[in-house]
């Protein structure tokens, strides 16, 4: 039984480390694909977890010690002590110090996420009930991204996560994401990049990421937005610069913003009239 458990752990852990999507029985985060997420993982693994473990073990020890040392049979006459200044100072100061130690890296991560470096690529994500719409404002590209139904899934496409039109971005480039919604609150979240921002109607929130490896990364709407909240996934395909440029060429034709085709129509009309 125990052996099986260890084997299954061995089986689960490496797969959860490699995948860019959630896996069955996963513990912990998905493998990071950006510096921002690596910082978050570091903060969790090497700061929060040790502190939480130490506090839990310490409190457990105190409880056990108090139960045994001060049990009724061993301690028939209860102590009437109600104050101990030294101990009160210690149990006020130590938690304060722990909070200060935690705050430094925490704020560092928070601010690095908030300060958007000069963007190489800008995309706009718009939440709709219940799908995501994307725009590349600098490239005049606009498209909608719907979840692929179970019956249409191709080999290797994860259920409830794959979409018909993926967001494509270049690797090692700063991607700024402007996030808004059309109807109700949604949230654009991509765990591997350490990105999660609310999509609020009538307001644009901004975030950014810089993917440090290529691959297909999956996220989901992370704000309860209605009956099909679970069916509006996010797929981001991180590709090399060349592949990105190739995709751009194709996308500019396939997903050309209507205004462009309208402009062409108008230009043609003007030519005809002339
Ligand atoms: Cu949503």
Would you write up a description of this structure?
The chain is an alpha+beta fold. The chain folds into two domains: 32-114, Helix Hairpins, CATH 1.10.287.90; 121-262, Immunoglobulin-like, CATH 2.60.40.420. 41% of the residues lie in helices and 22% in strands. The protein is built from five helices and ten strands, in the order H-H-H-E-E-E-E-E-E-E-E-E-E-H-H. The longest helix is centred in the first third of the chain and has 35 residues, at 35-69. The radius of gyration is 26 Å and the shape is elongated. It starts with a helix and ends with a helix. It binds copper (II) ion. The site of copper (II) ion has 7 residues, from loops. Copper (II) ion binds next to loops.
Tally of contiguous helical segments:
5
CATH topology of the largest domain: Immunoglobulin-like
| Helix percentage | 40-55%
User: Which kinds of small molecule does this entry bind, naming each only once?
Assistant: copper (II) ion
Poorly predicted regions: 9-17
What is the terminal-to-terminal distance?
85 Å
Beta-strand fraction estimate = 15-25%
Major sheet description: 5 strands, mixed
For the biggest β-sheet, the strand order reads: 3-2-1-5-8
What is the annotated CATH architecture of the largest domain?
Sandwich
Mean pLDDT: 89
What integer value in Å does the Rg equal? 26 Å
- How many domains comprise the coordinates? 2
CATH class of the largest domain: Mainly Beta
Strand runs, count: 10
H-E string: HHHEEEEEEEEEEHH
